[in-house]
Amino acid sequence: SPVIKVAAAQVGPVHLTSTKEEVLERLLILFYTAVAQGAQIVVFPELTLTTFFPRHMFPNGPELDKFFEKGDIAESSLMKPLFDAAAEKKVDFYFGYAELTSDGKHYNSSFYYSAALGKIISRYRKVHLPGTFEPFTKPDAINQLEKRYFLPGDLPFDAFRAPGLIKGAVKGGQSVDGSTIGKGDPILGQLICNDRRWPEPWRVYGLQGMELMLIGYNTTSHSPELWGSRKPMTLEEEYKEVMFHHKLVMQANSYGNSCFSVCAARAGADDGKWGMIGGSCIIDPQGHIIAEANTDDDEVVVAEIDLEDCRQGKEKIFDFDRHRRTEHYGRIVEQ
Ligand code: CDT
Questions:
Q1: Does residue 68 register a pLDDT over 90?
Q2: Which of 105, 163, 193, 209 has the most C-beta neighbours closer than 10 Å?
């Protein structure tokens, strides 16, 4: 059956003073650790190379742009050791980074590198940007300036097939019984952090038969201004609530689209004080967490997944062709 091994590479604290080269060394260790456990796809977090800089206010210009990768990341000399490792080990990876295009546009981006094809085969730019454009005036509020630093993504939620992962995959994905599920090269989707809370992108991918969703994220454990709870909470209560919502959306959307999902977090306290929730995990199409991180540090989470398990939901309760009633869904796309 169509079984593949997938990994989430969780990344612990990254400080304002951490260099991208130091981070990349840690990523290579995570990558080789995942490879040693047989992983065929490794998922890295959102904005993997730096601290979560949208918590800080920087003026436009070089002070901000140093967090970004300029031009095509496929050509980046910084990233070359990771691309080389993936090519040599024949292992695919998803990677989140801050993108500065050659024509000066800033995006919160990710890509999927296929080792079988030796190149990036899918690119994505985060669509749902949380936070505010202006920093908070309250002095101890924690900022989330993604609306200031990034443009909303301009690429479609295009599912894609990743070749070379499943022995005997049927070309084009059609099996003798006419089903595509688990027969062809796996159908993948990618999102970034806050996108995972919105059912719409999951469904757009789900409608394309997506079997495996890949997501990197940076979720702050303490951010009362942005979460907006009416009830005062201790730090511990807030952390639990934020973790609950993270798992809730991952599990519910995996179930509702009958797909596996892998999500990789930034974790721990950046600069010893900015807490990130961690909670990297792998989820099956029935919504169960089948593997999860148990530290707040660099950690690899691995699981074997059988894409035939997507069949139950896709052919029964969530058989979209038979059960969706699109005549009632118009409001979803009204402005
Ligand atoms: N990076 C990112 O998108 N984080 C958001 C935080 C929301 S507001 C605190 C998230 O949805 O996890």
A1: yes
A2: 193
Where are the domains positioned within the chain? 3-333
Question: What span, in angstroms and rounded, lies between the C-alpha atoms of 189 and 185?
Answer: 13
Determine the number of helices (DSSP H) and then strands (DSSP E) in the chain. 9, 15
Per CATH, the number for 3-333 is: 3.60.110.10
| Main-chain phi, psi angles of 266, to 5 degrees | -90, 140
Residue nearest to atom 6 of ligand 1 (CA): 219
> Between the CA of residue 179 and those of 136, 176, 259, 310, what are the distances in Å?
52, 7, 15, 12
Q: Ligand 1 center to residue 185 CA distance, Å?
A: 32
Structure tokens at 56: 């800080």
- Full-prediction pTM beyond 0.95? yes
* Ligand 1 in reach of 194 Cβ (< 6 A): yes
Strands (E), the chain: 3-10, 41-43, 69-70, 92-100, 106-114, 119-125, 160-161, 187-192, 212-217, 260-265, 267-270, 274-277, 281-283, 289-292, 299-306
Continuous segment of H or E residues that includes residue 142 = none
Using a 6 Å cutoff on CB, does residue 143 contact ligand 1?
Answer: no
Task: Look up 193 and say whether it is catalytic.
Answer: yes
Query: What are the pLDDT digits (tens) for 140-194?
Result: 899 999 999 999 999 999 999 999 999 888 776 666 566 677 778 999 999 999 9
